[in-house]
Design a protein that fits this description.
6-stranded antiparallel β-sheet, Jelly Rolls, 7-stranded antiparallel β-sheet, 564 residues
């Protein structure tokens, strides 16, 4: 309350019994009690009969209430005093006034440099006065009718231009400051609040906006850091990739040239050997032909010999035919070998050309159209050996001794009487991995088999473990929920992101890059990715095998090594 007038007006006398705030367009009931018109109207709208909230007097019909102008005027005066109090107690305003040479609002009539502190401000004159300069307002008849209030700095900015009254209310629909007359005339059906309450509400909105801005700032700073780190890493990896690629291609070219030289040498050696073999065979055959021709001539002479004694004396012993080789033991099919070699070389060259074309395509794409299979292979190189933490497991979950399998157990329901570990889940049928990650990348695979329902992902260290976990963004869980034949994210229920069934799921997390991706390992396809995430604490693998609500679902979730 402002000093001076506080003895005339007590704030408690002008508080609405329903909203407990200073009256806003007050009305009086037939029993004599006062309420804000909006408060009592809302109260009666929800009641079976109309009665007074204070004395409980019941009215046979709903009273036709009118604004009590007298109480309204007093309430406005009280608000005016509160507004002046607010200005006087505003540290920034005091600092501005102090910089002008005074301890409060200064008199507008005093000569600069000799200004006294003001004791009153006039709403008619729009001027603040010290005691001596205020004297005419106490003496002159015309000035006595002016409305004086506690000193207000920058008075012109706080006065209604239409009615020359202090601005005491705020219209939320039109977002304008109002005096009492403006509030009752042109904004009668609007949501109007006293300046103090509107100020508090708007300050709250500013605080929320500031918090959101800080979060957005952190997200962008994190994204900026991760982008710069990715840029730095990409430069290094690009340099290494170029060097490795040039080295490998140079080695490949050298190997091809060696193969080419070896091919020429082998083909020439084989051809030379085949020719030598053929020449030897031809020489042998030619010699046998000559021998056979001589034998043929000899036999012709014998055949013409009519002298029986002479014939017998010249008959060749022991054989008429010369010794010859078996022609069936020799065959010359070098052309067939050449045909096979040419065909094999052509097929090999075509395969190499295809591989080179694929490599050329990958290089030209430069990562802009990387296949899911390539992404999966990249993710799998960051495999981590994940094991489950039994201290976090819901009491109805069963873990194997190696901590790599978890399944739901249809228990008796009496686990609630046990002494629960403070780290365990009590509502969600979940368990976390033992090790957390706060930087870098990691990957793990889980075999689901024929399970009808499950939930898998990563969770923050501070994830809620007592009671139900709300399915909304920023709940600390980045996970996929599978139900019968469709996938949805845990944070966005009833919004499918993938259809079908996946028996083996790969989970890849890039902490610094703000990414969580899920892969169908068997088909080497991407199921879903969370991107642009802001991680501020450790992340733990999250497993939820779910219950039997949608049919037999007792198969375990099994953590399996890559490529097994």
């Amino acid at each position: 309350m402002a000093s001076g007038s506080s003895s005339l007006l007590c704030e408690d006398q002008f508080l609405c019994p329903i909203c407990l705030d200073v009256f806003n367009r007050p009305v009086s009931t037939p029993c004599g009690h006062n309420f804000c018109i909006a408060c009592i109207s809302s109260y009666w709208n929800g009641a079976p009969v109309c009665w007074c909230p204070v004395c409980k007097e019941t009215f046979t019909s709903r009273p036709d209430l009118k604004v009590n102008t007298f109480i309204s005027e007093l309430a406005e005066q009280l608000k005016s005093l509160q507004v002046t109090d607010t200005n006087i107690s505003d540290p920034d305003q005091q600092q501005r006034n102090a910089s002008c040479g005074g301890g409060g609002v200064l008199c507008d009539i005093c000569i600069d440099g000799q200004q006294e502190a003001a004791v009153k401000s006039c709403l008619e004159c729009l001027t603040s006065y010290c005691d001596p300069h205020l004297e005419p307002h106490h003496r002159a008849a015309g000035l006595k009718r002016h409305k004086l209030v506690e000193p207000v700095a920058n008075l012109e900015d706080k006065i209604c231009k239409a009615h020359s009254r202090l601005l005491t209310s705020f219209c939320k629909q039109d977002e304008v400051l109002l005096c009492a007359l403006c509030a009752s005339s042109r904004h009668g059906n609007h949501d109007i609040a006293p300046v103090q309450r509107a100020y508090a509400e708007m300050k709250g909105m500013v605080g929320e906006a500031e918090s959101r801005v800080k979060t957005m700032l952190q997200e962008r700073q994190q994204k900026l850091r991760s982008t710069r780190e990715s840029l730095r890493q990409s430069k290094m990896e690009n340099k290494d990739a170029v060097a490795n690629g040039v080295r490998d291609l140079t080695a490949l070219v050298f190997a091809i040239r060696q193969s080419q030289a070896e091919l020429v040498k082998v083909m020439e050696d084989k051809q030379r050997a085949a020719e030598e073999q053929a020449e030897r065979f031809i020489g042998s055959v030619e010699r046998e032909i000559a021998e056979l021709q001589r034998t043929s001539a000899t036999l012709e002479e014998l055949k013409q010999n009519q002298d029986q004694l002479g014939f017998l004396q010249s008959f060749p012993i022991p054989s008429l035919l010369p010794h010859t080789m078996d022609l069936s033991t020799f065959s010359f099919n070098r052309h067939v070998e050449i045909h096979h070699a040419r065909k094999s070389l052509s097929e090999t060259a075509a395969q190499m050309r295809k591989l080179l074309d694929e490599m050329d395509t990958d290089v030209k794409n430069d990562g802009t159209d990387v296949s899911s299979a390539a992404q999966l292979r990249y993710a799998q190189q960051y495999e981590e050996a994940v094991v489950l933490d039994p201290d976090t497991a819901h009491p109805l979950l069963i873990l194997t001794d190696d901590r790599r399998q978890v399944r739901y157990s249809m228990g008796s329901g009496l686990w609630g009487q046990q002494n629960l570990n403070p780290n365990m889940f009590t509502e969600h049928l979940a368990v976390l991995g033992r090790r957390g990650f706060s930087s870098g990348r990691f990957y793990f695979e889980v075999f689901m088999g024929r399970k009808a329902e499950w939930c898998l992902g990563v969770a923050t260290a501070s994830i809620q473990r007592r009671g139900a976990l709300c399915r909304r963004p920023l709940c600390g869980l980045w996970a996929l929920w599978f139900l019968e034949d469709k996938f949805e994210t845990f944070s966005a229920p009833n919004s499918p992101v993938h259809l079908g069934k996946v028996e083996r799921v790969g989970v890849f997390v890039d902490y610094d890059g703000g990414e969580v991706s899920f892969y169908d390992v068997q088909n080497a396809t991407l199921v879903y990715s969370f991107t642009d995430c802001l991680f501020t604490e450790e992340l733990f693998p999250y497993f939820n095998p779910c219950d039997n609500e949608y049919g037999s679902n007792l198969d375990p979730m099994v953590i399996v090594p890559v490529n097994q």
